[in-house]
User: Fold 4HBT domain-containing protein from Mycena venus.
Amino acid sequence: MSVSLLRRRATRQVQRVSTTLSPPHGATSAPSPPSPSSPPPPSAHTLSAPSTPSIGAPRPPPPSDATSPESLAYTAALEAELQALPALRALREEADADEWYETRPHASIPESARANKLTSGALRGPGRLALFPLARVRKDESKAVVFVHLGRGLCGHDGIVHGGLLAALLDDVLWRNAILNLPEKAGMTVTLSLKYKAPTRADQFIIIKSELVELEGRKAFVAGRVETLNGTLLVEADGLYIQPRSTKLLNKADIRQLIGDPPPDPALVGEGQRDKLKASVVPPK
Assistant:
């Protein structure tokens, strides 16, 4: 079929559509006046967001000044909410509660040193990580349950916490669990594997759980997970942490500030207890 024939057919189609849409000859088309009961048509000034916010609905930014009265009041209210959480109260009232201790990781780091920290420095503040984590840890350092509040300033998609932020929080918790079982109480991340199971919404408390899986000299294998307060699984993780041969060069005081000091004489996992640890993941080779 020639190009000229295609053009003529297209021209005839346009003419037929124009004839159908045009008013009869001599007739005028005037808009009918709006009914008194009908709402006015929307304009750029009258359009607004839906009353029920969706995941993608834009929200105002978090407070920028962490020292303002508004921010301090917000943080205090959030701390009170944390202490009143049913999940935390239940752990404190369990039959084996005396086998666990509580600590607030990062809380003892001096303000002057936090400028170079991520989760306790750059990401700390109202609307982000407003509170220091609250960790309940077994005295044998085999398990930990950590409560964290995630603000809306930590999102990738609006309303959904960035997956990289969750990886950083998991690494903090699993690393703490690992190094307290290593000979020199110091170590570094070698591998960290994650499986994201569900989106993590912002503006909520989450629970990060960790468990020592296996201990081999300078190596510690740890498993972890992120859950909502009602137990919904959000992220699964497992990691390998190793004590470097240059441990003596590490700042042990800095490490103690990061992890939150355990009791003066915690019962650490001994040689005879390693085989009793319940493996929840297959440790990487």
User: Anything to note?
Assistant: The two ends are 66 Å apart (CA to CA). Helices lie at 3-21, 69-83, 86-92, 118-122, 163-179, 252-259. The domain at 69-276 is CATH 3.10.129.10 (Thiol Ester Dehydrase; Chain A). The CA atoms of residues 149 and 205 lie 4 Å apart.
